[in-house]
Amino acid sequence: FAKYNNIKIINRIGLCRGAGRNEGIQHSKNEYIALIDAGIIPDKDWLYNFVKNLNTEINYDIIFGSVYFIANNIFEESYASTFFDKAKKRDYIIPSVASMFMKRSAWKYLGGFPESIDGSYVVEDLRFINLINDSNLSKVFEPKAKVKWIIDLSLKKIFKRFFNNS
Questions:
Q1: Could you write out the DSSP letters of every residue in the chain?
Q2: Cis peptide leading into 95, omega within 30 of 0?
Q3: In terms of pTM, does the model score above 0.90?
Q4: What contacts 120, CB < 8 A, 6 or more positions away?
Q5: Which pLDDT does position 135 carry in this prediction?
Q6: Cα separation of 101 and 121, whole Å?
Q7: In the chain, which residues have pLDDT < 70?
Q8: Contact in structure between 49 and 64 (CB atoms under 8 Å)
């Protein structure tokens, strides 16, 4: 990473993903924050498609991209389908922290991601999305800011994930 001195790796010990996200954001230095999850592959123009929304008449606080799935078997396809808004006939997730761009001031206004000492917040991202939806922050969906989520789950992992997210 010596060539890319703007990338910083932070090693941390802890259970709570919300705390990890907050720590990463606290270490960042820019006005805008791009969020993506582990196991996610962004399209090559992912960041560009967020940034192009900064030069519009509306100065958005939060821009959501879309999350598509890469599934290798029927179990992974079934798992992926539980995330889709079937009423709107979508084959992607929106809104999601896994493809999101926001102003630092919006993150501060919301109080950061929910944290738990014992790691019990397995859906801190959904809690954060609820904070956004309940706020008066300006937000928009940028359909071209796409990422792909590699599911890679066995039947055992799928049941464990369903159990943890229930």
A1: -TT-TT--------S-HHHHHHHHHHH--SSEEEEE-TTEEE-TTHHHHHHGGGGSSS--SEEEEEEEEE--SHHHHHHHHTTS-GGGT-SSB-S-TTEEEEEHHHHHHHTSS---TTS--TTHHHHHHHHHHTS---EEEEEEEEEEEE----HHHHHHHHHHH-
A2: yes
A3: no
A4: none
A5: 96
A6: 22
A7: 1-2, 14-15, 76, 82-90, 119-122, 152-155, 158, 161-162, 164-166
A8: no
| CA 94 to chain CA mean position, Å | 10
**What are the residues whose beta carbons fall under 8 Å from the beta carbon of 44, sequence distance 6 or more?**
none
68: exposed, middle or buried (C-beta count within 10 Å: 0-12, 13-18, 19+)?
A: middle
Tokens read off for 159: 């049941």
**CA neighbor of 97 nearest in space, from 60, 124, 70, 136:** 124
pLDDT of residue 119: 62
Unique residue bearing structure tokens 């709107």: 88
The pLDDT, as a whole number, for residue 161 is 67
Query: What was the pLDDT predicted at 7?
Result: 72
Read off the tokens for 136: 């008066």
pLDDT score, position 88: 65
